[in-house]
Write a structure and sequence with these properties.
48 residues, 2 helices, mainly alpha
């Protein structure tokens, strides 16, 4: 995912560099939020 984000923004622009870092940070926050939301849930094979 990080490689596709890096390819979407050119490396020489400061604005695109900031946008890329904000996008990576937001995706990390969403990942942590998903982990926290699933804490304590039974995610075994029987759930699916």
């Amino acid at each position: 995912m990080a490689q596709s984000i890096a390819r979407a923004f050119p490396a020489n622009s400061l604005r695109s560099s900031i946008a890329r870092h904000v996008l990576l940070f937001a995706s990390a926050v969403l990942f942590v939020a998903a982990l926290r939301a699933s804490y304590g849930l039974d995610l075994s094979a029987g759930l699916f």
